[in-house]
Amino acid sequence: MIKCVILDDELLAISYLKLLCEQIDNVEVVKAFNDPKVFLNEIENIDCNVCILDIEMPGMNGLQVAELISGSKKIIFTTAYKEYAAEAFDLNVVDYVRKPIKKERLIQAFEKAKELVQNPPKKDFIEWNTNIGKTVIFTDQIAYIKTSEIDSRDKDIILNDGTNIVLKNLNFKNLLEMLPSKDFAQVNKKEIIALSSIKVFSTNEIITTILTENDHFLKLQIGESYKSPLMEMFGK
């Protein structure tokens, strides 16, 4: 099932696009927005896998919006202007659909999105929006991830060499979908650990190989709802 969110500054365009989507099997419009800022404030908390973005919008265009969305959302651009095509595909989007949108062309775009949602490409690195801009991070270099104490929408990522990078506006659900499931585990509501960083573990606590500022090994408390999945990962 494709669950999509629409962003277009024109209400008539939204209504028309919703009408087309309702005529396509296995496509559900979860929500629609006509304001990019409101969209960005809410999108990471919406259960969807595809975003349909208009490019030409006042204040902030669709290309700028796309750069701020986490990589877990597949993007289909819509626009009446062909000159944006090259820039759109530089963002590695699913498709670029010219207005006026035809149902058959939209179906093609959703078929591409469905393939990517069901069979995501396997990568050993991920490109994220971070406090230092677009950043490619190799997953085997990640030691530990926690919710930022400054802004809970952000996540602090600690690399094996101690480097600290802030992932911008990304929730744990989407984050875990991006990470190799065999290599990472969520231990409580605020922390994810790379299995390679686990030194010792019990049913209640994990001692990691990560050193704190006091040169002690970082200890993580295992949340009740996370115990069973963790034990299963280790065959317990």
Automatic annotation (TrEMBL):
A Pfam short name: Response_reg
Presence of the UniProt keyword DNA-binding in the record: yes
Top-level lineage group: Bacteria
GO biological process: regulation of DNA-templated transcription
A GO cellular-component term linked to this record: cytosol
Keyword vocabulary terms for this entry: DNA-binding, Kinase, Phosphoprotein, Transcription, Transcription regulation, Transferase, Two-component regulatory system
Sequence positions bearing 4-aspartylphosphate: D54
GO molecular function terms listed in the Swiss-Prot or TrEMBL record: kinase activity; phosphorelay response regulator activity; transcription cis-regulatory region binding
Response regulatory domain residues: 3-114
PANTHER family xrefs: REGULATOR OF RPOS, TWO-COMPONENT RESPONSE REGULATOR ORR33
Protein name: Histidine kinase
Organism listed in the record: Chryseobacterium taiwanense
